[in-house]
Amino acid sequence: MHDFKTLQISQQPGQPRIARITLNRPERLNAISEAMPAEIRAAVQWAEAHEAVHVIVLDGAGRAFCAGYDLQDFGSGRVDHPCQQERHPWDPMADYAAMKGYTEDFMSLWRCRKPTIAKVHGHAVAGGSDIAMCCDLLVMADDATIGYMPTRVWGCPTTAMWTQRLGAARAKQLMFTGDVITGRQAADWGLANRVVPAAELEAATLALAERIAGVPSSHLAMHKLVVNQAMLTMGLEQTQMFATLFDGITRHNPEGLWFRRYAQAEGFKAAVQWRDSGRPIPEGDDARARIAELEAKLREREGGTAA
To answer: What pTM does this model have?
Structure first.
């Protein structure tokens, strides 16, 4: 058994055909730390290695499924990271290699031969929505929310699953606006397989998992491969390559750098409020001018601290 830091794994009590993977950073709304993507892949490999397991349920401890990438790890301060480089010029392939690695870790849920079910409560947003949609099926609480707010600035969904799951028109609507939708709307749009009141979420998820668990594992594997192959034929892997590269650009172009500098100067809460409010995002020369002002403010603050 692995010694996981960000999640827990087990077989469902009384039903060894169901494996449970629980994201376990409730104090951070299960936000994605650097360790979590690789641990998700390792947990999937653990479930794959157990012949008794027919289906995998992925959920989150505490108040949310997953609130996206943890900005304490990936966005705070002036710490240089492959996915948020302070050095200039930035190295796009270093960014791509890191983000592609995280995406492939999430995609282990999609590629494994056993069906995967995301049990979504609270929020499955930003990178958390990527994790949820790498699962084969979604069961959601009716008041849960799912979406990718950073499409407004500082992000492009690297798994590129929105089009695959929703179709072009609705995927464009969510990616152009950065809006989130509730479980109820996710059901109306065909994104969620089942939506129930939060109090019924566990029972509904287990009922679906148990129904699947009764099917021979070889049949489940073949059916999953057939559907996945159709998605691959439609260009999923190529789309993910573009999306992952574009994600890096959104974090290092003038608009993305403005967002980072504003967050460093005013705090991420203020930056996120601006992003989600609908206010125009500074761009082009306006963004560059504001970056210069914010960097001057940061230098003055750092100088004052040093003194």
So the answer is: 0.95
